[in-house]
Write a structure and sequence with these properties.
The chain has four helices and five strands; from the N terminus they run βααβββαβα.
Length: about 130
């Protein structure tokens, strides 16, 4: 089945939860905090999704000013669809949506560092965080 990509279409929260639960990635500790998950996706201003038929198989959620920087906050691909280039295409489409004058920034999970290096992203060391208090 071909993968179809969409930009700035927010999937139903049930589809998002299904993806997160089958991707090895969940952006928040409390998996029952549906209200927070809904706000996270409703307030993203760049959202790229990948679909196999009616199944959400990938998602990239970002916050962007469209002139300087775009923060790619969440990137995930459903487990059985990994290693098919979907994550790389989600990143490419996110950058395309953000525009050429924007840099794409993300905070990688330790297990995904190799993926980002493989697709040509540069690793930076000068990053800082004020952690959230879930």
């Amino acid at each position: 089945m071909p993968i179809v990509y969409n930009t700035n279409v927010t999937p139903a929260i049930a589809d998002i939860l299904e993806l997160y639960n089958h991707s090895g990635y969940f952006p928040i500790n409390d998996k029952t905090d549906i209200g927070r998950l809904e706000k996270m996706h409703a307030n993203a201003n760049v959202l790229v999704t990948a679909w196999a038929g009616s199944t959400l198989v990938g998602l990239a959620r970002s916050l962007c000013d469209f002139c300087y920087c775009c923060y790619l906050s969440d990137l995930c691909v459903r487990d059985e669809y990994k290693a098919r280039g979907i994550g790389q295409e989600l990143v490419r489409l996110t950058k395309q949506e953000a525009g050429e004058e924007c840099k794409l920034i993300l905070h990688s999970s330790p297990e995904a560092v190799g993926f980002y290096a493989k697709i040509g992203m540069q690793q930076i060391a000068a990053a800082f965080i004020l952690p959230r208090t879930y």
